[in-house]
Amino acid sequence: MELTWSTEGLAPEDQFAYWADVVCEACAPLAPVRTRQHLTRSRWGEGLTGWVRAERLADSTPTEVVSCTQRLTHGPAEVRRGRDEQIFVNLQLDGTGRGEQDGRRCVVPPGSFAVFDTTRPYVLEFDESPDGSPWRVLSFKIPRDQMLALIPQPTLRTARTVDARSGAGVVAADMMTSVWRSRAQLSAAARLALDHACTEVIATALGAFEKEGDDRSSVDDATRASIARFVHERLPHGQVLAVEAARHVGISVRKLHQLYDGHETTFGATVRDLRLQRAARQLETGGPHVTVTDVANRWGFCDASHLNRAFKGKYGMSPTAYRESSSATVT
Amino acid sequence: MAVWDVASRPPHEQFGYWREVICEAFVPLTPSRIGDADDFRSRVETRPLAHLVRARLTSQPQRTSHGKGEVARTDGAYLFVNLQTAGTCAVEQGGRHALVQPGQFTVVDTAEPYRFQFDLPWRMVSYRIPHPLLGGRLDGMRRLTARAIDARGAGGVVAAVMSSLWELDNGLGAPDAELAMVSALGAVAGERAGAVSDRRAILRAEIERVVDAELSDPALCVATVSRRVGISPRTLHTVVSSGGVTFAAMVRRRRLERAAVLLADAGTGLAVTDIAASVGFDGPSSFSRAFRRQFGRSPTDLRRAPARGGQEVRAH
Predict the structure, then answer these.
(1) Three-state SS for B85?
(2) In chain A, which among 228-257 make CB contacts under 8 A with chain B?
(3) Domain B214-313: what homologous superfamily?
(4) ipTM score of the complex?
């Protein structure tokens, strides 16, 4: 279902408040500001003109935002106000974006993207393009835990421009735009598959930064992340065997298991964790006729009691309790 | 990266070189030319990735056959995804055939015979995908072969990814980027399969709803339910058995689960015999027997000590 908001038809004095509400609703809590400098260099010298179009795929929500030169702040107050923990992948379509988070700054020209984490403060600034058209951004809102499971480093490299020099970055950008463009023609199954495919390929592009570190540990981190992405992609289609994962990333099975020596996790635990994530999602969205046994069977657990045990270990509650608590929240 | 261009040979040798080239670059294939021009201007550029092989081809009118002999001679098993960029391709595999226009793509499986016919000079982008890269999706993809698929919707994403992947260097991120291609293809395949399974799930839910409404009738049968839902008894059996049970077993389970809920709820004050009747059992002894087989204890035992939280006895 697509949602659109626009400042069209509003008087300038009402536009700001409306826009603030709109971006908060569609994206994250963000406070818009237009300073005198913004106004001077903008084609829109007063008020705030813009529109937003959002449409949820499955777990992630792509949102197209078009507006005039401004700054958007996700400050400490906004961090506290936020309900969900999300990652925003901001792909610049027109105009220029600038961002700042975790002490890093980036400049994002059209065709490039950068990511931001709503659990910490960040600032975004957008400029109209030199020919006077408004800036446009395609922003993918992705659940934070999903993204973190697929990238090498424990903390996400926020405010870093991923551009055309990174081949994986181009594939990610092209995939995001083509999925957005064809969203009306996608079946429910296709939306889910492409939603996850986008998250995986974005994670790949982000992980590419690890190539810069030559040392063993960052290559190992990158390989572990690559394995996680492979498992993530394969999971809905049957068993995920260590031998297949090893072949995919080009190492031996022995080396694959060694990669997890001295780490908190193992290959088996990575697979189990991702299975539990998918089970949790199905419990949230599956509907009342889907039983816990169905979910257990679907995601490779012998039976409901095995799923129960593993589920409590990860989420601290039973699958039934999880389903009840998630249906109580309005999405 | 490798480029073969027949222009390096004199015109009368060009078709022969092309025949060698396509076997070299792809899989055993036998081309036969259409028309009688002197030359056979053709070019192939290949760019291997981690597991995929990417190729761009230009050539002339011809028929290409991957017959039984070629299937036997093929090393390994692959799917080809061919995006037509100029000219047309008539493809045939597995009893299906289609005419692929520029902007469309088609899929063929080297493990079975297939044929192409190009009536005009043509160009295509062709990605060769080894079966193992597809994993559990392979069966779904096989159902996709020899169709002309538009670059719209999920097909549009496939075309965009193919175009994007062409430029990618074969580095650390390559295996993951290849997964993007596999996922996008899976989405296209899923579009055909998904329609079927969604419909089944909807029908199954409707059947269960009708059964639940008529549970108290001991004579509840396939004929009544299928008539009520508006499907044939055969369809009903197909849909119910795709959930792993027979109709009779499904009805029995729902009767027993509703009985368990009533028994566990101390407030009803109904006798066990009355509960049995209300869920459509003919007599109390057949009820007790069936109940014990399903839940491992007798109805009276359950009434005396219902499960904590009632979780065991949820009626679905």
Answers:
(1) strand
(2) 229-230, 233-234, 236-239, 244, 247-250
(3) Homeodomain-like (1.10.10.60)
(4) 0.79
